Amino acid sequence: MMSSSWNALFAYFGLVLAFSDPSLAQTCWRNSTCSSITKTAFPGRWDKYIYAPSSRTVAPKSVLSLATGQNISSYPGTNLTLATNGSALVFDFGLEVGGIVTIKYTVAGTGKGAVGLAFTEAKNWIGEWSDSSNGAFRGPDGALYSNFSGPGANVTYTMPDAKIRGGFRYLTLFLLAPNASVQIADVSLEIGFQPTWSNLRAYQGYFYCNDDVLNKIWYAGAYTLQTNAVPPSTGRKAGPMSTSGWMNDGYLGPGNTIIVDGAKRDRAVWPGDMGVAVPSTFVSVGDLESVKNALQVIYDYQNTDGSFPEAGPPLLQQGSDTYHMWTMIGTYNYLLYTNDTAFLRKNWSSYLRAMTYIYAKVRSPLGLLNVTGTRDWARWQTFGLMSHAQMILYRTLTTGAELAVWASEAFLPSSSPSSSSSPNLTTLFLSRASMLQNATLTHCYSPSGNAFKDNTSSPIFPQDANSLSLAFSLIPPFSVLGKKISTSLLRNWTPIGPASPELPGQISPFISSFEILAHLQAGYSSRSLKLIRSSWGWYLSHPNGTGGSTVIEGYLVNGSFAYRHNRGYADTSYVSHAHGWSSGPTSALTEYVLGLRITERLGKKWLFAPQMGDLTQAEGGFWVNGTGGFKAAWVKYTNKPAKGDYGDGYRVELDTPEGTRGEIRLPVLKNGEMPEIKLDGKLLDEIVDLSWYYRRDNTGRVGDEEDLDLVDLVGGVEGGKHTIYVNAK
Ligand SMILES: *[C@@H]1O[C@H](CO)[C@@H](O)[C@H](O)[C@H]1NC(C)=O
Ligand SMILES: *[C@@H]1O[C@H](CO)[C@@H](O)[C@H](O)[C@H]1NC(C)=O
Ligand SMILES: *[C@@H]1O[C@H](CO)[C@@H](O)[C@H](O)[C@H]1NC(C)=O
Ligand SMILES: *[C@@H]1O[C@H](CO)[C@@H](O)[C@H](O)[C@H]1NC(C)=O
Ligand SMILES: *[C@@H]1O[C@H](CO)[C@@H](O)[C@H](O)[C@H]1NC(C)=O
Ligand SMILES: *[C@@H]1O[C@H](CO)[C@@H](O)[C@H](O)[C@H]1NC(C)=O
Ligand SMILES: *[C@@H]1O[C@H](CO)[C@@H](O)[C@H](O)[C@H]1NC(C)=O
Ligand SMILES: *[C@@H]1O[C@H](CO)[C@@H](O)[C@H](O)[C@H]1NC(C)=O
Ligand SMILES: *[C@@H]1O[C@H](CO)[C@@H](O)[C@H](O)[C@H]1NC(C)=O
Ligand SMILES: *[C@@H]1O[C@H](CO)[C@@H](O)[C@H](O)[C@H]1NC(C)=O
Ligand SMILES: *[C@@H]1O[C@H](CO)[C@@H](O)[C@H](O)[C@H]1NC(C)=O
Ligand SMILES: *[C@@H]1O[C@H](CO)[C@@H](O)[C@H](O)[C@H]1NC(C)=O
What we know:
The protein is of the alpha+beta class.
């Protein structure tokens, strides 16, 4: 009764059927060409976690007193009056939003005046000046003004497009007029992000588990990524930056939508940020159009020496070896998800020039990358033989090796005797990766510290290099060395997240996004969940943030919304509260905790390898354009066997498209004991064309950490629906 049990499990999570809702008939942004994505791919009761509104035009949720910050009324309320000069009301949208505001009001009294509009993401900066975004730090962002000429007027004011405010939650309206008063009749916002989507809730992926906090964080990451997908004509002004006020009318790149670093700012393409943002986009929102355009603009602006800009236009920051490599890694990610070989063909020679450029910085005698392009994610220093740069280069080379296979399959001339003199790039990149791995372990690892040093001689054990070493498999998953590194990372932990040794006093959810992967790769699932709950959970419940609707760029160990104050952020209100680089939990929860991820282009191959931690149930999935829907669900049962189940254990349901093939790696119930495993009703040993491998964990338990042996189903299964029971014998 495979299909009935399959239905039962998904029903357990409350799967409901999709009904098309006529109220969802909406528009895309302005002149954007609409995406063909219009409907949620996996409707269900998890839809309640989607923060995106069902309409592109939204109203505030409540009205606050500026003086006290307290709620005065829900919006619209009955009497929204700005009575005298300096009177103000704060309109709270209840979550992160962004776009173009329109206000309507009537004027009484005498004389002319103005209504000011000031914006902020965080509640600490409500007031007559907007939070900081212009990047020059010379004059404040200030406010916009709707000037009126006298009494009796019914004014409708729409802010200019160039003044689009990409990220805010609070709008303060205040009166500047000696002898007039104003009655606010209406406040509305036309959302500017996710411009090509007619239905902002049309998610192509979902996640649902028994921990409400994790569900909210998964959807906060997803919504953040939506706020970061913006019209390509709304980049922040740069060269020079605005020295007061703000301007968001710069060219960001081609197409109708593009993914930038943050909703409020910088509003520029940053390839390093995409290292986290893009995998999370793939499993949740599913908007790869924005990703393609972001990568393309970096290729379009490649320098003649082969280097890529660190950021796209208008910013066009230069001089970063790490962000250079992130563009190359991003190319792999995008191809993995889409198999867009036209894109690869168009940019392949540029990619190879970029590889030549960066690999020329690997010099003997040590065989390490010597970083000379020193800009980076904001760590204190990046030059010379930096450990984290070796990790990123290792990933660049291993992904480059795969890209070379894909390029040769898709459009390079097939190898012939005459071309045998040209090197096989896959072989070349893999041998370079292996030499680099050896050199990095030899020169950057500290056996006494059980961790990588910041560079070959530094006394610091940084969060980034150690996290990336595992996330990018320079250290093999589940290895003894990996477990040591995972444990050494715990030294940085505070109750509200890990303090980065390489950026003292600060907490970086960007680097912590890789640390989540590091603990999972080490086999310590519970550590990853603890990390998500401490850092992202802290922001989720913060009274002054975006109500948990987004993920924040960074903050201080003392719990204040400040970041990089000693690294160029001259104003603490500059911090972005909707930054895709902090969306790591979204992909980690789907790909590692639920355990479903694709390993070959378009999901032709995939892996199911759950890492359950303290969760008892999870399900989720994602839609792959061109292949179909991928879903997985698991539920543990402890002394409460469901009908048809027996004993303690867990049950898995998989549903993947026909024509795909998946590997399966299952945690045992108790170390050293092979459980009874049934696949589609048959014991493993009864299945002739499947062998399995018991992978013993040799390090034992560390404290209360789960550290389970694994059973690999060698060769895996064909796509389709599968049910697995793992039971105590
Ligand atoms: C604000 O106050 C009004 C009435 O005083 C109440 O109906 C509403 O629920 C409150 N809103 C919030 C977000 O607390
Ligand atoms: C509306 O509020 C203003 C300012 O708070 C006050 O002066 C006025 O009397 C109120 N009007 C009504 C009808 O409550
Ligand atoms: C009017 O209000 C503004 C804003 O609060 C203030 O800066 C200004 O000094 C006030 N003007 C007068 C004449 O009180
Ligand atoms: C929230 O902001 C208010 C006003 O700035 C401040 O007094 C309060 O301490 C902040 N709350 C937290 C938890 O930081
Ligand atoms: C509109 O009002 C603001 C604030 O009082 C003022 O600075 C600005 O000069 C006014 N603009 C016009 C065109 O009158
Ligand atoms: C302004 O709008 C109000 C409400 O719609 C209306 O009653 C009033 O007559 C209008 N005043 C003017 C001057 O148009
Ligand atoms: C849409 O309008 C913007 C601003 O006017 C312009 O820069 C952009 O090129 C237009 N996009 C398309 C797809 O026509
Ligand atoms: C790295 O490159 C810089 C700049 O070219 C050079 O000064 C330095 O000696 C190099 N370091 C190593 C270890 O090769
Ligand atoms: C290069 O070698 C790899 C394996 O090392 C192989 O898969 C690939 O087909 C080769 N490429 C060419 C163009 O021969
Ligand atoms: C690096 O390679 C050398 C030569 O093959 C080998 O002796 C050494 O053990 C390797 N070191 C590491 C850390 O892998
Ligand atoms: C990717 O696309 C190319 C054609 O562009 C095709 O030859 C190849 O089979 C595709 N690969 C997958 C895994 O779908
Ligand atoms: C789906 O893939 C096709 C090419 O296979 C592409 O033309 C289309 O734009 C993709 N759809 C979306 C929504 O990305």
